[in-house]
Recover the amino acids of this structure.
């Protein structure tokens, strides 16, 4: 059985990334804030600059000029600035467990997996850029833990290969995340309509790793069947940080938690017709009523019979049939018009 699914509210993952800004105290405060906001999990990333790349000042190792967040920065220096020191991991995992939320991480090499296994990480996430690193996927899958695979930039063939590698290595529980690997991501390139396509193609739970601004996109994703939502979080965007520009602040994360559940509840069923909640409103549909005191022998006119709320009388469309007929009994104002009165 999958850890996630459309039979329950969306699982909310707060991604810390580099928004600790180099401070363990801030990292722990982020864990506390995520828990207080109602997130189900806090996720970090386990790497060092040296496990990600090499320190070479060459254009191929440099982010393009004009990038919204990291223009011209070299990969090594960016990863050095953004990484979560490995000796912080125990404290972060301990704090999360104390707060009642799930700690886990994205590992990027064997040494990261070894560290996370020592911490008894309950699951692993494969980042979008690592979806083609099938040896890493097989390594994580071989732990027997659930695996979450993000699909930013990936083709159908690459996604299928990653899932096959995970399942072939023994992973019993794979969740795939629709993702646009742009920071921040334009809403018009998020393509939420691919969520049900992925679900049908893979037969697996599908979530959303979202890098757009705000919470509108992930809420919309719930309507397409997203069962997990991952968003970057920060204590305050004004404090800066590598990912702060597209990260949620605690109050926004709380709103995401609440509104994603509300959106999931609203999906309901395909049944058409009055619901239990509409029973009271159903009483106040219009019907034909006597709206002036009349006596037997009086003619039915537009002055003494009208379509008003509530229900109880003849259907409004019967007005053309009853006009001109005569009342057979004295009838008081406020009496539903029925066939035995005329």
């Amino acid at each position: 059985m999958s850890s996630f699914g459309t039979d329950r509210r969306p699982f909310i993952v707060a991604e810390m990334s580099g928004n600790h800004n180099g401070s363990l105290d801030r990292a722990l405060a982020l864990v506390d804030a995520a828990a207080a906001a109602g997130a189900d999990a806090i996720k970090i990333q386990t790497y060092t600059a040296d496990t990600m790349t090499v320190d070479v000042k060459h254009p191929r190792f440099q982010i393009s000029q004009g990038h919204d967040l990291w223009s011209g920065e070299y990969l090594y220096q960016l990863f050095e600035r953004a990484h979560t020191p490995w000796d912080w991991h125990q404290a972060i995992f301990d704090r999360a467990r104390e707060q009642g939320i799930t700690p886990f991480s994205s590992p990027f090499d064997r040494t990261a997996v070894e560290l996370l296994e020592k911490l008894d990480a309950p699951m692993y996430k494969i980042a979008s850029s690592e979806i083609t690193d099938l040896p890493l996927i097989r390594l994580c899958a071989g732990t027997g833990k659930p695996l979450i695979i993000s699909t930013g930039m990936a083709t159908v063939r690459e996604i299928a290969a990653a899932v096959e590698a995970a399942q072939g290595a023994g992973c019993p529980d794979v969740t795939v995340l629709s993702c646009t690997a742009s920071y921040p991501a334009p809403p018009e390139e998020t393509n939420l309509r691919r969520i049900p396509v992925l679900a049908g193609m893979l037969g697996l739970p599908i979530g959303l790793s979202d890098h757009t601004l705000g919470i509108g996109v992930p809420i919309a994703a719930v309507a397409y069947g997203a069962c997990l939502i991952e968003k970057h979080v920060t204590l305050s965007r004004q404090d800066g940080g590598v990912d702060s520009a597209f990260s949620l602040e605690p109050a926004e994360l709380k709103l995401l938690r609440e509104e994603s559940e509300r959106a999931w509840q609203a999906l309901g069923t395909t049944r058409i017709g009055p619901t239990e909640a509409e029973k009271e409103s159903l009483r106040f549909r219009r019907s034909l009523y006597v709206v002036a005191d009349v006596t037997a022998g009086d003619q039915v006119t537009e002055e003494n019979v009208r379509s008003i709320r509530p229900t109880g009388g003849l259907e409004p469309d019967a007005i053309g049939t009853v006009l001109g007929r005569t009342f057979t009994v004295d009838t008081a104002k406020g009496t539903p018009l029925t066939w035995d009165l005329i």
In short: The CA atoms of residues 33 and 250 lie 6 Å apart. The longest helix spans residues 250-267. The first strand starts at residue 11 and ends at 15.
